[in-house]
Amino acid sequence: SATIPPLAKFLEHMNYKNNESIQYDGDNMLEFMGVPFFEMYSAFLKKMEYGFSVSNTKFGREIKKYEGIEKKKTKIGVKYVINYEKLMKYLVKMSYVEANFDDIDED
Fold this sequence. Notes:
4 helices, alpha+beta, 107 residues, three-stranded antiparallel beta sheet, globular, single chain
């Protein structure tokens, strides 16, 4: 099986963690400010004992590759806007997660 990037695992984990509040109605977006989101990822790497860390810059570069994540510049810093429906479809397409979601409609 493909090696799943830690970032993909983190994003999937965030999805489950926030699942209570996510209604897959097509426009439900989650927003995270850049630094706290990066810090959550750093904590995740540590907790999962990946044995490496990344810089905020590298995090920003890596996360841009994922469909469904938009990086916006605001007055108070970078903000990530995540369309989880799009993101999960991308993770499934890349074989980063198993496609066994009852709650995502294939349309």
